[in-house]
Structure prediction request, 941 residues.
Amino acid sequence: MRFGVLGPLTVHDDLGAAVPVTSAKQRLLLAVLLARRNTRVSADALTEALWDGRPPPSARANLQSYVHRLRRLLGDDRIVHDRSGYQLEVRPGEADDEEFERLAGAGRDALADGDLDRAADLLRRAPALWRGRPAYAELPGSSAEAARLDELRLAVVEWRVDADLGRGEHDLLVAELTALTAAHPLRQRLYRQLMLALHRSGRTADALEVYHRARAVLVEELGLEPGPELRELEQAILTDDPALAAPRPAGPAGPARPAHPRRPAELPPADPAFTGRRDEVRRVAGWLTAGAVVTISGPGGVGKSALALRAAHAAAAGFPDGRLYVNLHGATPGVRPLSPHDVLVRLLGSLGVEERDVPADVSAAAALFRSTTAGRRLLMVLDDADSAAQVRPLLPEPGSGPALLVTGRRVLSTIAGARRLALDTLTPDEAAELLAAVAGPGRVAAEPAVAAEVVALCGLLPLAVRVAGARLLARPDWTLSSLRDRLDDAQHRLDELEHDDLAVRASCDVAFTVLDETPAAVFTSLGLAGFADFTVHTAAALSGRTLAATRRALDQLAETQLLIAAPGDRFTLHDLVRLYARERAERTLTPAARDDALRRALHHYLATARQASRMSVAWSDQHAAIGPETTQTGRTQPGADLPDGPAISAWVRAESDNITAAAIHAAALDGDGPAILAGLAAAMAHPLRSQDRWADLVAIGRLALAALGDTGQARWRSKLHQSLSDGYFMLNRLPEAHEHGLEAVRAAHEGGDHHGEADARSALGFVLHHRGRTDEAFEHYRRALELQREIADARGEALTLTRLGVGHHLAGRLDDAVACQERALRLDDSPHLTGIALFRLGDAHLDAGRPERALGCLEQAIEAFQACGSSVDEALARWLRGDILRLLGRDGDARHSWLRSADLLREMRSLTSDEAGDLLGAPVPRMPDVLRRGRDTRHPA
Prediction:
């Protein structure tokens, strides 16, 4: 992890990706901890800093919340807490101010030893690490640490000027020192350096004028005469003391160089339309100035070359010996990538070495290149690399002076010691700014909302945005709305994103045409389903390949940047690349092959959904029996492996969008599509419910009912209506819940399905109870229990008893409520039913004035919900547990329980971070509305 404090606060992970610390309070907290890193900072000191000496009553609670969020961003082991306070653990080399001080100290030592060239290099690299002034920009201006670093920064500049004066570069320093004395009019050392530079440049009168100006400022501002060193320098200049003469240039070590070595200036001009990427440009320019090897990777069209040139130009002043540029043509359509030897000949030629003097052997040519560049401040940009093998012979000797910047689609992970930047798409604001830069700001300003839609349809990809802007520029009769309407047609969007020599499709072609057969087939199959992201299992099902072969193919696709590897062993396709894959699938696969691939994917989801349902809910066998038997998906076994509750939770959260998309595909699939959809809807009822995905549950259920029509089996229709009733109930749409509940009972009764009818009556009773129709509710509970006892359905009876217990609880009959829940627990010990019964039992004990017993029930319920992966129920139980703990006077434990509940809701996307922060910032947090939704008082559905 890297921490940046030399300017605005930044944090990057080990791969160079930015860690977003967006809250102002969190940024201030992190800055305070960084300023006192690896030492304890008391909570009082932190609240003093966060609220500028005026902390609110909730300051301690808010501080705990801010620390918790920082831990989630940085890692739990980063912030240590005990009674004495908080401590941020920062490892050696992770903070940029540490690197700055290291370079500064080494430069000062080199200056003291008389090694002026090394001193100048080190002292120039040190301040290049800064990203503006001041340090610790988030801290108050009086921060002692920020002031110390700012003072050291200026001292480093003065030391470097001394080194440059010692090297005879006085004529190059005059302009810089003039600006520095204007910015720091009380620093006598800068005046002394400027006088010496002017005198050595033959401008003695100007040097004496600087002295008089300095004296006037010092007398007026401080009431002091200049110090003895400044006065003595004035006298030495007046007498033309020979000791002030410029030093003679030192001869270079090693082989003599030409009297006038070439200083190539080959960088192409930076793109005037380049926008955004400010942090990235500063970071890359800083790395280059420090003499590093830097690699920029990313998919085609993401703007690697544009960023590289902008950063190279930003750093160019630090490379007086020249700037070299070569396009390696690693991804240029129709052009073979340059060989390392060809590149070495070109680079050496730019440095004055004749081609006939370059050895034919690559290793020998590389050695000559390293010798030629050693000790020279050269900047080399190698654009569009094909592989690390193409670049490795072109690496300069580490620390020898040159800096190297390489761009390419692949991550050059085997280039040891390189600084790496993985480039992603633009932010929406940056993309709109780029569109305005290309098409003209007036067009974008006239339709800002439409401009946002245009860049979104371009997938925020710089190449696509540039093409869109170029088309607008070529067609002044078009409005942005005209272009937006053209791009809105996904079938022809890639056709629209083509203009002159720019085309998104051509960029994808470059990567696709070099693929082997299996990766190409896997990629093509991914265009069929339109999934935003996917696992190896899903890709294997679509392609009909084995898991091992598919994993190898996906790894290759990620290396070529056609796929993006995501956390959790998942992969994703950029929107435009997904359209490209769909084009290839439609062009190269027969309709039957496309249907077979989708059918395999649907069976994969159906099998996994059934496994999730069976593992999480013991009474789900009836739901899992809906629809066709799952078949083997190609050469892989059906379904992903879900070993426990957390795995089920993670799968539902990651796959809920894909399951909705799969349901749409199933509805349109001829033959067994509706049956697969019915099975998917029934099997996903509880998994979706467990992660608070009620809207998805309703959408899939409605789709399945429509696809089945009146011809579907009555048992299937009953289960679908029951799922819809549950979903509408939790969305607080009780009339629709009631209507579908009645349909579920009717369909099961007509089909002679006693299990289904009992389940439906039990669920309908719960809805009726919450509609205030108590007598009808109890009648449905009674009939459900009769049926369940007739068919010996103990699990169904247990579930009905938990609902009946809620009815007694709401009616104030707490003893009856407790009896129902205890009997349910004796009938069935499956995790989810156990969790529900224990939760409702604890709730009854609480209202009966037995909080200690209630707490014990809630803690057991939490364990049960964790075991079956029911996160929404766990969140509810944890929140109520917090309420009970507070009632018992255990405020710290209560807040921890509320915090974990809020974390679960955020993980389910049921609560935003800001909403969680607002809730937890209150002295006594109120139960979130999402946990109250669909539940009269605190009862899980």
About this structure: The CA atoms of residues 13 and 698 lie 40 Å apart. The mean pLDDT is 88. The longest strand covers residues 379-385. The radius of gyration is 35 Å.
